[in-house]
Each structure stands twice: as C-alpha cells, then as structure tokens.
Amino acid sequence: MYTMRTPLAAGIDIGGTNIVYGWIDREGNILSRGSVLTNDYPDVLQMVEAVVAFLHEDLSFIDGDFDIAGIGIGAPNGNFYKGTIEFAPNLPWKGTIYLADLFSNAMGVPAHLTNDANAAAMGEMIFGAARGMKDFIMITLGTGLGSGIVIGGQMVYGHDGFAGELGHTIVDPEGRLCGCGRKGCLETYASASGIVRTVKEMLGKEHPKSLLDDIDQRDITAKKIHEAALNNDRLALQAFDYTSRILGMKLADAVAFSSPEAIILFGGLANAGELLFLPVKKYMEDFMLNIFKNKVRVLPSQLKDDDAALLGAASLVWKEHA
Amino acid sequence: MYTMRTPLAAGIDIGGTNIVYGWIDREGNILSRGSVLTNDYPDVLQMVEAVVAFLHEDLSFIDGDFDIAGIGIGAPNGNFYKGTIEFAPNLPWKGTIYLADLFSNAMGVPAHLTNDANAAAMGEMIFGAARGMKDFIMITLGTGLGSGIVIGGQMVYGHDGFAGELGHTIVDPEGRLCGCGRKGCLETYASASGIVRTVKEMLGKEHPKSLLDDIDQRDITAKKIHEAALNNDRLALQAFDYTSRILGMKLADAVAFSSPEAIILFGGLANAGELLFLPVKKYMEDFMLNIFKNKVRVLPSQLKDDDAALLGAASLVWKEHA
User: Fold this and answer.
1) Nearest in space to B156 (alpha carbons), one of B87, B80, B101
2) Residues of A in contact with B257 (CB under 8 A)
3) Residue B173, helix vs strand vs coil
4) CB proximity list for A310: less than 8 A, separation 6 or greater
5) Which of A106, A144, A298, B94 lies 20 to 30 Å (CA to CA) from residue B256?
6) What is the pLDDT of residues A81-124, one digit of tens each?
7) CA distance B76 to B144
8) Rounded to an integer, what distance in angstroms lies between the CA atom of residue A268 and that of residue A223?
C-alpha cells in the first residue's frame, strides 16, 4: 500500500540567549516549536544531541507520516559554504564550529546553515513579502543591522560566504564607535540601539522638552522612543527623522549596487511602522540616482516576529527542494 | 567534405566620439578593427547599416572559414535585458533605442548589449585579470567611475538591468555637485576628472609649491597630475592620497556588500599604477570589516586600453557560448 508522506524541515535558530527549534512543513506551518537556553550547553556536542532528541520527541507527537527533508540553521556569523559558525561573540563555543555537519550527522539528513539575516531573507522569499521576487534586499533592524541580499533568485554569499554586511558600511569615517572596532558603521545609527544612541545624544544637548526627559537614560529603548513619537514628541520624531535620513541614504547606495525590486525591513525598529517607513522611503528617493527613482518598494516583513527565525531557517531546506 | 569553421564574434563599442567595431575569436584575438565617427550618423539606422557593411567587408579579408557566433555591444546606459540604450546624454540618438535588435536583424545572428563597465568586467572574466573568478568587481576610472559586478559567475544586472552604479554611491551628501544632479557621488572624487577637481581645489587654497602651479588650470589632466606625482610633487601626491582614501573607503563598503575575491581597476586614472594602487589598497584595508581583511586583491586590468572595449563587447557573445 502506498502512503503519501509529508516532507518536513527542522528549523533551528541559534541565538545568544535561546536556541529555538521546530518542525515546519512546505507551506510554512510551524507544527511544533521548543527552545533551550544557549548557556546551558557550554559543549556544542551536548547542545546538538539535546536539540536533536527534542526534535525527535516532538515529531512523535505530530499526527501523520513524515519524511525529514533536511535541517535549516540560522546562526550569527554563520557561513553557508562551510556550514560553520566562526568566532560568534555572543555564543559560548569558541573557534570554528562545523555546526551543519554536527546536526547532519546526528539526524542523518542534509543540513544547511547561514547567518540570521540571510535566513530571514530566505524566509521572506519562500513564505513572506518577497514571494515571486528575484532581486531584493532584506534589512533586519535589531540590536544591530543585518542584511541578506538576493540577486537573480540566489542569496549572495560572496567568495568566502560572508557577503551582505550592510550594517558595517561606513556612514561617517569619523562617526560613532561600532562594536566591530571601526567608526561610523551604518548599524551604529540605523538599528534599535542606534536610535537610542541618537536620542541620548540629543538629550545631552539643548533640545525641545520631551517625554523622554522623564525616563532614566539607561531605560530608554527603541520602543519607548516609538511610543513618544506616537504622542508627537518632537525630540522622538527628530530621532526617527535623523535615523531615516541615514538609512535612506545608504539604501540608495545599496540600490545603485544591485538594483533590487524591493527592500524589506524587519525587526524591532521596523515595528515603528510608518514612523520609520515614510521618512526612509522619502530620503531614499531624495538620494536615489535618477534611473532608479520610484522603482524600488520599501516593504515591511510579512513574517510574524516570533515565527520569522524558524521559517527563515526552514526555508534553507525548501530552497534546496524548490 | 567536413570543414572546421571558426566561430567569430562581432564586437561593437559605442562611444560619444567613435564607434569601434571588430572581429574577435574565442581566444581574444582581434582579427580586424575599424571605427566610424558617432556624429556622422544622426540616424541610428544608418549607423547600424554602415557598421554592418564594414564588418562584412572586413570579414571578406580575413583568411579562413567562419561562423558568425553573435554580436556583442558595449554602450553607455546600455540595458542588458532589453538590449537598449536609454537617454544616453553623449549620443546623438534620443529616447529608447533597441540597438541589440537593430544589429541582430541586420546581421541575422543574436546580439547582446550591456553598458561599457559591465562589458569591461566580462572582458576581464573571459580574457583578463578575472579569469577563473566567480566573484569580483570591475571599476573603470575614466571621466566618470563605472562598475561591473560579478557574483557567482554572473553579471549583476538587477531587476531592471541597471545595477552596478557604484560611481553614484554617495560619499558626502553635502559634497561635490555631480553630473547626475545630486551631490557627493563617488565619481566626483574618484575618477580622472575627480582628481583634477581635487587638484584645482587644492591650488585654490594655501598649498605647497607645486609643478602644477605653472600649468593653466584648464590644461590640468589626470595624466599631468600623475607625472607631477612621479616627480615627487607634494601637492600631486596629496591629491592621489585624498582620492585613494575616498575610493578605498567605498571599496570597503562594496566588499561588505558582495565579498568579492578581487577588485579590478581599469582606465585613465588606474594607469597611475602604484601611485594609486598602494594607497587604495592601504585605505581599503583600514576601512575594512575584520572578517574581510587581507582577503580581497586589488588588481590592474590585464587588457590593453585599446583592446578592452572590443574584447569586453565580444565577451558578451562568448559568455553565452560558454
């Protein structure tokens, strides 16, 4: 008797705090999800063993007959070609870790790994705002600024697997000190932490009276700036304008590079919606070379914040099975 | 009887002053070449007719039995997808010209067209410094700054065919006025005309005594600045340093985008050799994100100035026959 078996992908998102894993079908349904604390596993082999055991256990609770199509992994400093994470500053495992091989060996199926922003881009291409697009750029605006670039339907990995670091293009060589050790990187301005730095700088100078004056500076977050801006707080609105101008200018540069159909914004700061999207779009057009004007859409992600990382990781598998 | 017929490509380089055409074999030998004056042909159809007639005539003088494999065309503002030139400011034909179709119909073989910098990149990939490379960036430093980007062995054309305009990424939004109407584009600094502007600015302020003081400002060229620098002229050396710092910084940005194996510099300003290459390389490394440091070669073109345009155009044909 012939039984139709449903292919499933294991999606794994490696973060500094949590490792989230789940089973995802080809339509982007998340059939199970779980997580472990990253720092509970100083030994990476134990982490792999534990996550694989949990995944197998979860699978036994899902109704149906399944084939495991593969494993997709999103990880900071992930290298697609080698399936490694290398010197990721926020992870407990040091040196070069062949994480894709470790998972592949433990489960007996192929494993694909890339960095979080590339996985997010893949998620949008397979399940989200970039469905049907061949040329787009994904920008994740979290603590830093991550990017995933798709050209001609292919992720851009570059010759070493590390392409797509738009967060570390330079806005001002004499500008803000970046975590990477250099000065003036885009992510020091255009990110959740970047806008917080902007507000703190503004509060340190003569400035319009602001709702943010009443908050301990250590407690200022992108979300609180967003809330103040929704209440028409002038300083908060100026901070969004300042951030958007810099991001818009660098997006115009990115368009001159790869001429994408759309740029998709995702992550903490992107949740500010029109407060960010309208000025970013305006400044991007102001700074755009004529031949590209009014061609490039700036879109919000269509993946829910909580699902994006798992869907992105699973997309690495479905992309191979396209 | 079976005769081995040699495939040949017609290469055509469309310029504001001359249109150069020739027959090129698969090994990059230029078997014939000729040119006409662009402005002798206000009607584009007459230009196509004339060039095709000259090409046929030339072919009759080449010994051997040939197949015409195709036509490759490099042209300013060329669009690969549509085979058009669109609103090229220095050409006599206005509006959108379907130049690839016109040539293809006139010769009865396929024709491929792209902009000059992309053709140059293709020429390096097939015949020059980028042989065997899958990821590199070509920069042409002439009157302007053109660029051709190759990722995974494919030219980057973008969703509209106009990708690769690194000359119009922004160095300083309050900077020099560019021919494109915006301010602070890279090509206003890093190009043959950019370094001339730099020297004129320096001569207009307090400056070290210079060999260039004795030249009428209208006669200053990149070549004369190069010659002065070879004579250890301080002002000329400072101009090269200033130019190289800006170019190096923007090349570091380009590396963060596509992580190429090499960057190839071509054209008037690149002929300055080490005077340009050494400081560009140094500043690029200074501005480079750690993970990319000491990985990316900066190479001179391996095509002779006089041959590059024809070889680039012909490469469009050989790329299709790879």
Assistant:
1) B80
2) 149, 156, 163-166, 169, 254, 257-258
3) coil
4) A11, A13, A20, A21, A22, A24, A30, A33
5) A298
6) 999 998 787 899 988 999 999 999 999 999 999 999 999 999 99
7) 11
8) 8
